[in-house]
Amino acid sequence: MKEIRNNIIKRTVLWMSMFSVLLYSTRVCGITNLIAQAAEKDAPESDFVIEENDNIQNTSKKDNYIVVTDDSKTAKVIEKKYGEANTIGGKSKHNMQKESVAVCKMTGSQAQTLQERDDVLRVEKDSTMKANGKRHKREVVKIKQSKLKKEWNMAMIRRDVNDTVSTKDKVKVAVIDSGVDFGNDVELKGFIDLVPGYEECLPYYTDITGHGSAVAGIIAAEKNGKGITGINTNVELYSARVLDENNSAPTSRVIEAIYWAIDHNVNIINMSFGMKEDSQALHNAIKDAYNAGILLIAAAGNTSQVEYPAAYEEVVAVGAVDSDGIVCDNSAKGDEIELVAPGEKIASTGGYEGILISSGTSMAAPHVTGLASLLWQKDMSMSSEFIRSLLRASANNYGDTKSYGYGLIDCKYADKIYASFKEKYSKNGTASNVEQYNNTAVVTTLAENTYVEGSWNTAEHQGFIGTPGKLTSANISEMKQGIVYPDKKGGIIEGVINNPGFHGARNYVLNSIYLSYIARDGKIQEASKYFDSDIINANKNILDDMYNKLTQCGNSITGRYFLWGIALHNLTDTYAHQAYIRNPYNNQWYFLIHPDSDKVGCPGHLVGSDNPYIARGRFDSTQISATLGLTELLNGNAWTFRVYEHSGYFQSYYSREMDGFEYYHWEFKLKNLYKNAREVDFGAGYSNVLKQATYGSVK
User: Fold this and answer.
1) Per-residue pLDDT tens over the stretch 102-122
2) Phi/psi at 650 (5° precision)
3) Chain centroid offset of residue 548 CA
4) pTM score, two decimals?
5) Strand 471-472 and strand 455-457: pairing?
């Protein structure tokens, strides 16, 4: 049986090789992709050829392996027998298993034996991903950065962000990346964290490295006077976190995210990461997404070769150009390159209402995704291949094919030719008219790009906050690791019940102020150093417990910014664990609780403390408080109760209701906010803000 199957595989592989040569020939000769059009019409649901893997080594060392089987039942049995590899977080819906794929931890010899089974098609190592027409002479116009009224990258691709049109049917875009910080200038319709150990982390600081938020910002950052404005603010954005704090992910986690995106019926998937090794299991998932009508866009990579998944035929591979319109030295080159976009020192959404400067093909890919969504929203009945062909036809092709592909994307020209291209495409059923378009637009370039890569600054571009002066991306990353640390499974300060002082409970105002002193000084000291005896005596047990627990953390606390993160965690957790929300229809107030609370089902309580779609104003208030707290630390100050004193409590979301989320616009207040503040500083002058934002005593 196995021998017969292998013969079939060999014949099929030979045919596929001939097909690939033909496909390559059509691309090199400049003929448009008629073959791809035929594939779009006649492609089967998921009829893929799987080759056996001859590269498995017969070793006793255990490693993570992806096992492709005949059916989902077999995958489940194998995963149970060999043990599931801990590569995907607990919030996963096991989409891979449904697609007959298992991820197991086993020895090389076990993997070899397993592959000999008739119901096993292939076994491979679970490799690691890293975040990463006619040609004409280029004409440029150089402009000083200070003279530009918009970001240089938007000027280069000729995108006027003031022209965004709201449409009834929105394009659904999935960003598979390091996560996207919820509410930080980017609105999410759905999200999932697939990195193990982070299941309890709140969604407004899920992106530890800032990579995914920057990608999402280029696509869809809101036009609100803060930070940048994305290419298309009209999309529905979905975020699947697969990259960890090192911007790495096993292939299996990426595959799970792809099937999650398919289940959510997205139109476009953006993947700003890659790896050198081919994976047939990954390729199968890519093909399933392609056959579901999804447009797949990926960063080509920052190495010599085009990386996977960008190298797959079903994926648009995007290279990067600098602020002079020239392909970046480290942008991958090869026949697989399809388009290029800006990717050097790009300003995008950073943490805490700031801006992060980033580089690489990772930043180039979302430019293509943004333009694709703009074009697709004109007529959602058009196919992904139509959009892909239009992107090619409208590109400004002034470079060699291996470096620039079809050329630099051009929003204005794509919009200009849309109607005629659609008419010809619909009439012919193919993209055979690409060569009839010849974009010769002048490219806007910078005289000098003055941005500093990896830096974080204020939204207004007025220089860096405060007087240490700078926060680098490394500082932000360390701080983010501190923020999520109290929620990591098995940690010393995990859980609000055992560690209320770190999770916005008890007198959360006092606890936040104590942690801010420690963060400011960069060392763990007892509360008696900062507070008078009355406060110490009234809160001795919890303050002592906080000090003792922090000292027990030892080397887990990696530095000063890590302590900043722990302080910010308690400050922001308040809006999850101490919130009352009001039903506007009957004026009833409900206290928000966690799903595992013993108050579930009790009157006056509602599950959803960690749900950002319940009382959306809580999450804007979180961002405001965090920004206030961060600004004070940057200026060398500890906090006062005023980090809780702001207007975010009163923002209304009636004009921004989100379909499917009944509680989105409900008002909220914090439990005992005024009382807690007065216990810290009884003689202070309090504004009415604290009283109005308090649920409970205001005497």
Assistant:
1) 899 999 899 989 988 988 888
2) -105, 10
3) 36
4) 0.81
5) antiparallel
